[in-house]
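Input structure tokens:
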């Protein structure tokens, strides 16, 4: 805080070995604790970014490398992943900190959505998009909105963090009363702290890393931590604004898929083909 002291380049931390990929690693990689530590750090110092794809990573990295006097945490798995946004879309998404991905859901903006599926983190974003696709294909009458958060601190109120989202924009994304199923890279309790003070904060139902896992397949990790596409679809059905025709049958189908996964992964030591090879 001395006026003569020059600003220094930010401390940029890039985490690429995450709790969600334990193909060859054991307990040493199972813990998104650094993210939780930075969430408790002073708002004028700490920044946490969870780019959902490579283009968002490029945009976030460019911003962080140009910044001064911050601690920037960037979390993205080093494994090959799907690309969701063009470079222009990624830059706009990162500028906003969070946005609605209209192409992923069925919410056309003419009415309030029945459910909001939100994500922060690359692996869980894949599961949210896959869950939204299942709802679009098997339960098209349900109005589903998909929101992705790349700047985690944007969830805070403006008075709590400089990156805090304006209340009007927060309501534009999450509404004021629709239930939100939030798939998170880290410990789910962190989301409840971030949205504290937002409208009807109890409607946020967070899923994330709950200390379950072993050296296993990628999809088995999300199943063990109850943040798979099938868990998210069942959450959406349970918490939607209204019940639509076919919801009970889809819920049972998801339960059957989870049971099938449990058998398949033990027998074949790899994920089911429709999961392993899934794409839009």
């Amino acid at each position: 805080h001395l006026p003569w002291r020059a600003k220094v380049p930010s401390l940029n931390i890039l985490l690429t070995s995450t709790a969600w990929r334990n193909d060859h690693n054991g307990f040493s990689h199972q813990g998104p604790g650094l993210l939780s530590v930075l969430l408790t750090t002073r708002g004028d110092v700490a920044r946490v970014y969870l780019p959902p794809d490579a283009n968002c990573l490029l945009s976030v990295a460019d911003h962080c490398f140009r910044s001064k006097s911050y601690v920037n945490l960037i979390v993205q798995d080093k494994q090959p992943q799907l690309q969701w946004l063009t470079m222009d879309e990624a830059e706009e998404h990162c500028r906003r900190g969070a946005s609605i991905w209209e192409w992923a859901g069925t919410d056309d903006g003419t009415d309030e959505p029945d459910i909001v599926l939100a994500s922060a983190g690359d692996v869980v974003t894949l599961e949210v998009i896959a869950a939204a696709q299942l709802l679009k294909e098997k339960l098209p009458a349900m109005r589903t909105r998909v929101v992705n958060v790349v700047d985690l601190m944007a969830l805070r109120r403006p008075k709590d963090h400089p990156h805090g989202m304006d209340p009007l924009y927060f309501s534009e994304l999450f509404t004021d009363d629709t239930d939100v199923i939030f798939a998170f890279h880290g410990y789910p309790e962190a989301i409840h702290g971030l949205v504290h003070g937002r409208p009807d904060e109890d409607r946020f139902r967070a899923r994330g890393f709950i200390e379950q896992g072993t050296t296993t397949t990628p999809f088995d990790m999300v199943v063990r931590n109850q943040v798979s596409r099938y868990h998210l679809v069942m959450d959406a059905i349970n918490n939607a604004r209204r019940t639509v025709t076919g919801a009970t049958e889809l819920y049972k189908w998801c339960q059957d898929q989870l049971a099938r996964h449990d058998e398949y992964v033990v027998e074949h030591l790899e994920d089911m083909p429709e999961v392993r090879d899934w794409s839009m």
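Residues 18 and 39 are 17 Å apart (CA to CA). The chain has one domain: 11-276.
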